[in-house]
Amino acid sequence: MIRTSIPDSIERGAFSDGVHSFSVRASSGDAPDFFQVYTSGKVAEIVLVVSGLNAGTLKATWGLNWVTASEEWREWCEAEAFMVFYNGTKPAVGRVRVCNG
């Protein structure tokens, strides 16, 4: 699993399941109400849209090619997408430094 962040205010970053690469982008740079997950390099191939961010009424809508994915995979993909949307990328496992004093 690889995650990257992108400096553009709408493009939030990317993640991978080891087979496919996905990009996450917000609906706007300021107070976005939804975000999209799409296959990297193919903006038209929407994997997931999560709407209702400002209203607090979250709704996940899956793209036609992805709605039949397993429930477990869709839960994983949604969790990864939220992480990238809110935080960008996080350090890879084994590359975290901790200071105890």
Structural summary, described in words:
- The longest helix is centred in the C-terminal third of the chain and has 17 residues, at 71-87.
- It contains one helix and six strands.
- With 101 residues, it is an alpha+beta fold.
- A hairpin with a 4-residue loop joins β2 (11-16) and β3.
- The protein has one domain.
- 17% of the residues lie in helices and 30% in strands.
- It is globular.
Question: Helix and strand succession?
Answer: EEEEEEH
User: DSSP strand (E) fraction?
Assistant: 25-35%
DSSP, total strands: 6
The gross shape turns out to be globular
Average pLDDT figure: 84
| Spatial extent as radius of gyration | 14 Å
Task: Give helix % range.
Answer: 10-25%
Sheet bearing the most strands, described?
Answer: 6 strands, antiparallel
Structural class: alpha+beta
Q: How many domains make up the coordinates?
A: 1
Q: What is the end-to-end distance?
A: 31 Å
Order of neighbouring strands in the sheet with most strands: 1-2-3-4-5-6
